[in-house]
Amino acid sequence: MRITLYQPDIPQNTGTILRLAACTGVDIDIVEPCGFILSDTRMRRAGMDYLDQVRMTRHASWQAYRKARNDRLVLLTTRSRIAYTDFTFHPDDTLLLGSESAGVPEAVHNVCDARLRIPMVPAARSLNIA
Question: CB–CB of 31/5 below 8 Å?
Answer without folding.
Answer: yes
